[in-house]
Write a structure and sequence with these properties.
The complex is a heterodimer of chains A (478) and B (502). By secondary structure, chain A is mostly helical. Chain A is built from 20 helices and two strands. In chain A, a hairpin with a 4-residue loop joins strand 1 and strand 2. Chain A is globular. Chain B is globular, with a radius of gyration of 22 Å. Classes of the chains: A mainly alpha (478), B mainly alpha (502).
């Protein structure tokens, strides 16, 4: 028997995250007064350093590690860097929110860093157990985060819903994994793929297991009909937590979908393709139609998320490299746009006032033309109007399904996006065309203002020069 | 060195960057002069497109070609031919007029107003110049954003309804265009519009693509029955918005049919030409009657725009009938050139009509025809211009309005007598609604005290209208320069259309 020296540097970012998470936990425990501020500073340093750690070995250090349970490839590198970078902004936005509400506690940052670790593990998983481990680490942190605002009834309700439905989804996923294990005899993703490739497996059992995997992924992404938790959790959770849930975990869920369906069960694509078409089409229809009826901004964004998830699925459905790249591009832009949208909500909110209702944005352009412009960019981008980046995301995924000649699905989703345009336009209408009732102040700190502006300008900049990001996404899958 | 100047890019990006500069500068004394300088310089630059234009070729000129999104093979690809060049100059000219028209009128958020129009000018020029399908689509859609804001912020009472209707209507049309473009890319392996022209397609494919193009561009033109957004948008839009809507955005519909529908799907266009002709004749006759009964000045002009644009689509699609009846095709050249002249001429006349309404509205704050009467007594100079433009709108020989309509009617005779007969009713209907409006608004006794207190046009308004009047007269008396630049392109289009792709 040969013993191999395990190359620990494969998982350096994760180990660093773990170490820092424990350090922050200790800091919070020992420094009662300054703990929260220290934790915030340390978690930001953690994120920046993690980006550096991933970036340092990009391209050079690739392959499987730890008995093939862990993979480091272009996809994991790109997604990890995106997750860490977006979390920098997320932490900045949420700090501004938490400080104004006496929720500024160190535990939030501990949970955030642990959740980031979970996502990072998920993204690099090459084994069902690694994947599940990462998923649960992330989810448990998120449940606790939503519940952190103890005295708020809606937040507690949201946390309960999130927890119960999340646990159910995890159960489904595990069940699916165990069935796949049952017939392939392996939990490693490449071994599963190899077993399926032999073609000697019982297809009925395989597709039975597959259904549960798809349900699990659908739950985590929030695709219809597994979306029920999403609007309630988005609306009920404190905005800072919603912001966290809505952005990077979706990227991790995207990675989970790629690892399971494309890398693991890519050979039975014809089975999951039809299921995903249903999920995707239903998500786009329900998300866009129901969003019209919403008056609450967070709830509207929740339904808008559901429709974006439908679009992300489109690229996967195509089963082509260009399609996966398009989905990755969509997922990344979705995260950036959602970040900006919730960032604006936090920016507009202040002590004792949540800018949650759409009507709270009345006449914003008269008092704060700059931030109204930023919100305008975000909304038009989400609606998929060029020259904003949201358009190219839609272009990439729709192109991939036109290329496999699923024209009817393409027509359906673009017509739905016209319906979707209405509720984004309504926000712009409220900001630009309505008269403000009274002049309200924005008392967000300067770093927050700069970050939100940079965030929105990035949406415009990526829209005018989408080539680099697009090429990066394409290189991941080629 | 001079010939290497990317003139098209300058004409596109100067107003966009100028618009951003105006926006950042904010509302102060520089807002208006800065906007005027940017728009006038753009107009001068666009004149360079005319002087440097080679009329003997149908090939794209002033070509620029840079990779933009390499992953998808999308290029920043620009170039103009005889169809796009006049429309680009029209765009640059209209922007100057809009800036001048909004000089004193717009007091609320003036910098945003000027910036919106400057940016829109660049975007519209880019639509006409784009040779890459996705580049075209990006600008085609992006254009909606400033216009949406202009109507919504500076519009009238019912502006929110009008602007959302406008946005959703046109957005709905254009998403089908996106699918069509992506499908063509799938078939041809390129996003270049000129490659689309060459790709072979079956009749089924062509039919689907043709109707996708038709939905997208018919909404823009707008053709009956998808025209209903236009009267609402026109009525609620501020004067500048109405001018740009009528002068340029409607032309993008006609241009799109020329650039996409006819050359890419010629066989489907031939199969369904009766359908487009029927819609066009409905627009000309039925909408002519609708215009007659309007009590709102802007609505009347909006409906008359729809009727006039009916000539454009009629001219473009009557060519198949002409070829069926005669082998020479000289009538077809006449039809397409007539359609183009009609587009340009309508750009000037409709703009002038909306400016006239704007002049009245600024003084009386009403667009109701019944609120006026006897304006000639207090505003004689203005009355002179109004009557002239109304005559041009009715197609009086000697004005540009006559040239395009006459060419199209003449060509239509070669296809089918009844097409020409129905189209010619516009000479009666157009005269009826234009002149009846003039009679009620301009002539007669002074109807009320408000009219009695009217001041005649000031110097700014005078020159604005005078320049337009000179152009309308010039094209009417000597349209040759306009027709010459498009001649080679028209002939090329007809050879493309005649070549079956089956």
């Amino acid at each position: 028997m040969m013993f191999e020296v395990v190359n620990m540097s494969f998982a350096l970012p994760e180990m660093f995250l773990l170490g820092m998470a424990c350090t922050i936990l200790l800091v919070v425990a020992f420094f009662k007064k300054t703990g929260a501020s220290l934790a915030y500073g340390l978690s930001q340093i953690t994120m920046v350093a993690s980006v550096v750690l991933v970036y340092r070995d990009m391209g050079g250090l690739e392959g499987l590690a730890f008995s093939d349970t862990y993979i480091r490839d272009a996809l994991s590198n790109v997604l990890k860097i995106a997750i860490f970078l977006i979390n920098i902004a997320v932490l900045m936005y949420s700090t501004s929110y938490l400080k104004a509400r006496e929720l500024f506690k160190g535990e939030y940052y501990v949970l955030a860093v642990f959740a980031t670790l979970g996502m990072s593990v998920m993204v690099s998983a090459h084994h069902f157990l690694t994947l599940y481990l990462g998923l649960e680490l992330m989810s448990l942190c998120l449940y606790a985060m939503v519940a952190m605002h103890r005295d708020s009834k809606v937040a507690t309700e949201a946390a309960m819903k999130y927890f119960i439905l999340g646990a159910l989804a995890s159960g489904m996923l595990l069940y699916g994994m165990s069935i796949i294990y049952g017939i392939t005899g392996s939990l490693s993703i490449s071994a599963v793929a190899a077993a399926i490739q032999t073609g000697s497996l019982d297809n009925t059992v395989l597709s039975f297991g597959l259904v549960f995997l798809v349900i699990g992924v659908g739950f985590k992404l929030g695709a219809v009909p597994f979306h029920m938790w999403l609007p309630d959790v988005y609306q009920g959770a404190p905005t800072a937590m919603t912001l966290f849930i809505a952005t990077t975990p979706k990227l991790a869920a995207f990675a989970m979908m790629i690892r399971l369906l494309v890398e693991g069960l890519g050979d039975v694509q014809q089975y999951w393709q039809d299921m995903l078409i249903m999920l995707s089409v239903l998500s786009v229809i329900l998300g866009n139609v129901v969003a019209i009826a919403q008056t609450n901004m967070k709830r509207m964004l929740a339904y808008s998320t559901i429709s974006h998830v439908g679009f992300i699925l489109l690229g996967i459905i195509s089963g082509t490299e260009a399609g996966y790249a398009g989905s990755l591009f969509y997922a990344l832009t979705y995260a950036v746009m959602t970040l900006a949208a919730f960032g604006m909500i936090i920016l507009m909110s202040r002590r004792g006032f949540e800018a949650e209702e759409i009507s709270d944005y009345k006449g914003l352009s008269q008092h704060h033309p700059w931030f109204a412009l930023m919100m305008l960019i975000v909304m038009f981008s989400m609606a998929g109007i060029p020259p904003l980046v949201g358009f190219y995301a839609k272009l990439a995924v729709i192109k991939s399904i036109v290329d496999i000649e699923l024209i009817s699905v393409a027509i359906l989703v673009v017509v739905m996006s016209v319906i979707g345009a209405f509720y984004y336009l309504r926000v712009i209408k409220v900001m630009y065309f309505d008269q403000a009732d009274d002049a309200y102040e924005i008392d967000a700190p300067t770093d927050m203002r700069i970050m939100v502006s940079a965030n929105a300008v990035a949406i415009l900049g990526l829209g005018i020069f989408p080539g680099t990001l697009m090429a990066l996404c394409a290189s991941v899958f080629s | 060195m001079f010939f290497d100047t990317p003139l098209l890019s300058l004409v596109i990006w100067l107003p966009i960057l100028g618009g951003i500069a105006v926006l950042l500068n904010g509302d102060n004394g520089f807002t208006r002069p800065l906007s005027l300088i940017v728009s006038v310089v753009t107009l001068f630059l666009s004149a360079g497109l005319y002087t440097g234009f080679d009329m003997t070729t149908h090939d794209m000129q002033f070509v620029e070609h840079i990779p933009w999104i390499a992953t998808f093979g999308i290029h920043y690809s620009l170039g103009i031919d005889g169809f796009s060049m006049p429309l680009i100059i029209l765009t640059a000219f209209s922007t100057v007029i809009v800036v001048v028209a909004g000089w004193e009128v717009i007091q609320d958020r003036a910098s945003q107003y000027m910036a919106a129009f400057l940016i829109m000018s660049g975007l519209m020029t880019a639509v006409f110049a784009a040779l890459d399908a996705i580049l075209f689509y990006v600008f085609f859609e992006a254009m909606l954003i400033p216009l949406f804001l202009v109507i919504g912020i500076w519009g009238g009472q019912n502006r929110v309804y009008a602007t959302i209707k406008f946005f959703l209507y046109t957005f709905f049309g254009s998403v089908f265009l996106l699918i069509a473009l992506l499908y063509l890319r799938h078939v041809s392996g390129s996003f270049a519009i000129l490659d689309f022209h060459a790709v072979a397609l079956t009749l089924t494919e062509q039919t689907w693509l043709f109707f996708a193009f038709l939905i997208a561009f018919a909404v823009k033109v707008p053709m009956w029955p998808v025209h209903t957004w236009l009267p609402d948008a026109h009525v609620e839009a501020p004067t500048g918005g109405s001018v740009i809507l009528a002068a340029i955005t409607l032309k993008i519909g006609g241009y799109g049919l020329l650039r996409f529908a006819l050359p890419i799907t010629p066989d489907a266009a031939m199969t369904f030409d009766w359908f487009v002709i029927a819609l066009s004749l409905t627009a000309i006759v039925y909408i002519g009657f609708v215009a007659l009964v309007q009590s709102d000045l802007k609505k009347l002009i909006a409906y008359s725009s729809i009727a006039h644009m009916g000539f454009v689509t009629l001219g473009l699609f009557v060519i198949f009938g002409i070829f069926a009846n005669s082998a020479t095709g000289s009538g077809a050249v006449l039809a397409v050139e007539g359609a183009m002249v009609q587009m340009v001429s309508h750009g000037f006349i409709a703009a002038a009509m909306f400016l006239c309404v704007g002049v009245l509205y600024d003084r009386m704050h009403t667009r109701e025809i019944s609120a006026y009467g006897g304006v000639i007594n207090t505003m004689p100079v203005f009355a002179g211009f109004s009557v002239f433009f109304a005559m041009a709108n009715a197609g009086l020989p000697g004005t540009s309005g006559f040239v395009g309509e006459f060419m199209v009617i003449l060509a239509a005779f070669q296809a089918n007598f009844w097409y020409a007969f129905l189209a010619a009713t516009t000479l009666i209907l157009g005269a009826a609604y234009s002149l009846w409006m003039v009679k009620r608004v301009i002539f007669g006794e002074v109807s009320n005290d408000n009219v009695a207190e009217l001041q005649d046009v000031n110097r700014r308004e005078f020159w604005m209208l005078a320049v337009l009047a000179i152009i309308v007269l010039a094209i009417g008396l000597w349209p040759a320069p306009l027709i010459d630049v498009m001649h080679a392109s028209v002939e090329h289009l007809l050879t493309q259309v005649l070549q079956s792709k089956l």
